């Protein structure tokens, strides 16, 4: 994919400006890859993610769809979000901190494990509408458009917080919030494993497999514990 010569998200909010193709985001969403094979001569992305083949190569089938619903691109997607949910999500996110439009998109994707990644065509008109209502103000941030709540916007969120709910959980199918932390931990572990795949020696690879095996057994031990009796 060709890299855009400018960041299309620097343009003012609203329907005007160059239309972008689906998935044409300025920041790559994939895992960085140097183009060099790993110690075993394979593409490390294949070894880690398990895109091709099975067997003993790399670290097995990877942490993708095989990890169950929601832990990879094979997880079920939530239902389609309505305009009211996009509006509510933007207000709640901006109540936490000012954001660029692209940050709103990526933050919602992160909070829903990729199940809800609204398009710019949904987010930017919603931001423009909130700006017209006096709930959001837009300032220049190094050539980019930074959205934040006005005093009226903050008062609106506080007054209607119960009505706004948590739209990212609703759209994602009611996924408990704690699973986001679990998925982040899984990704952090995956990053460490990939470094071993890319640069580790055979001995380091064997040691990493032992660490993963211990972690697997510890997780099963946690599941076997009685949550009502943590000292058991």
UniProtKB/TrEMBL annotation:
Extract the ranges annotated as region (Disordered): 1-81
InterPro entries from the UniProt entry:
ArsR-like_HTH, Tscrpt_reg_PadR_N, WH-like_DNA-bd_sf, WH_DNA-bd_sf
Q: Where is the signal peptide?
A: none
Domain called Transcription regulator PadR N-terminal: residue spans: 90-158
Record's compositionally biased regions (Gly residues)? 56-76
Q: Where is the composition biased (Basic and acidic residues)?
A: 39-49
- According to UniProt, the name of this protein is Transcriptional regulator, PadR-like family
């Amino acid at each position: 994919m060709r890299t855009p010569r400018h960041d299309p998200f620097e343009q003012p909010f609203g329907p005007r400006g160059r239309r972008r193709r689906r998935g044409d985001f300025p920041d790559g969403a994939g895992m960085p890859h140097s183009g060099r094979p790993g110690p075993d001569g394979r593409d490390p992305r294949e070894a880690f993610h398990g895109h091709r083949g099975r067997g003993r190569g790399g670290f097995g089938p990877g942490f993708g769809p095989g990890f169950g619903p929601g832990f990879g691109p094979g997880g079920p997607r939530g239902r389609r979000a309505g305009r009211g949910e996009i509006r509510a999500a933007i207000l709640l996110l901006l109540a936490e901190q000012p954001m660029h439009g692209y940050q709103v998109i990526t933050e919602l994707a992160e909070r829903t494990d990729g199940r809800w990644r609204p398009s710019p065509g949904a987010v930017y008109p919603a931001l423009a509408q909130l700006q017209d209502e006096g709930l959001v103000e837009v300032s220049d941030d190094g050539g980019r458009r930074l959205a934040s709540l006005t005093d009226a916007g903050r008062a609106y969120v506080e007054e209607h917080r119960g009505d706004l709910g948590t739209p990212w959980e609703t759209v994602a199918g009611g996924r408990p919030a704690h699973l986001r932390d679990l998925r982040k931990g899984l990704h952090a572990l995956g990053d460490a494993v990939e470094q071993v795949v890319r640069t580790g020696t055979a001995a380091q690879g064997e040691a990493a497999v032992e660490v993963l095996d211990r972690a697997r057994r510890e997780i099963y031990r946690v599941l076997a514990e009685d949550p009502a009796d943590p000292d058991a």
